[in-house]
Design a protein that fits this description.
5 helices, alpha+beta, globular, 17 strands, Nitrilase/N-carbamoyl-D-aminoacid amidohydrolase
Amino acid sequence: MPEKPFTLGLVQTSMSPDPEHNLDRAAKLAEQAAQDGAQIICLPELFLTPYFCQREDSALFDLAETIPGPSTARLGAVAKKTGTVILASLFERRAPGLYHNTVAVIGVDGEIMGLYRKMHIPDDPAFYEKFYFTPGDLGFSSFATPFGRIGVLICWDQWYPEAARITALSGAQVIFYPTAIGWHPSEREAHGAEQRDAWMTVQRGHAVANGVYVAAVNRVGHEKPATGGEGLVFWGTSFLADPMGQITAEAGVQEEAILLAEVDPARQEDVRRGWPFLRDRRIDAYDPILRRWLD
């Protein structure tokens, strides 16, 4: 029989220039989400700072921290106090000169259950992540929590069906995407609507194709780098899609929010029985997917 439903808390917030303030606020918002009924709480991508990848600056490596470290200790105390699971996206300092964009999955006992290191690293104007992050080496997997089995991917991973499929095949009932995505202000009027729609559509597609819930957790606010420039306007719109791709909860474009949303394993079971995509996969015919291009 399917497990009981469980409640997610998707924390959509803005970031100040002060990492200590952001950590303190994240801890308080996680506590509030738990008080509101959340059992698994997800923070946005790189929530400790403004999105520093808008420029390449080697001094910004100083923002990184070890895992375990001060942030996982602080959030671990919250997880233990509230009996929740917390997903914390951090700039990980793994070794001198070796850094990752990493989510720490913190369990109800306050300890780290596991890590996911971002696999797909973008390099676009104002998203210069290849300068900072080494691609992940832990692969795609899922984590068994007391509430349900969850998978974690990060932002740019959202565009890759292979990542969602493998995570779903590992048993994930819900895939979380902590995110930092927004508009270039000069492009917003001409392309903003289609960009945001594409972002939501591809993730809803992952939900349908894999029969899973998908939770996207974005930040809000207009962030400009200290060196100048138009910056980025983050478009919020954190949401949960069910296994049929239906949006069951959605936050606004500009406001901060704690979005509560339910995951029902019985819904997943029902959808997969009707649309058995995993059953009908032709795994004997998919070797070409491992090639860069079919010449």
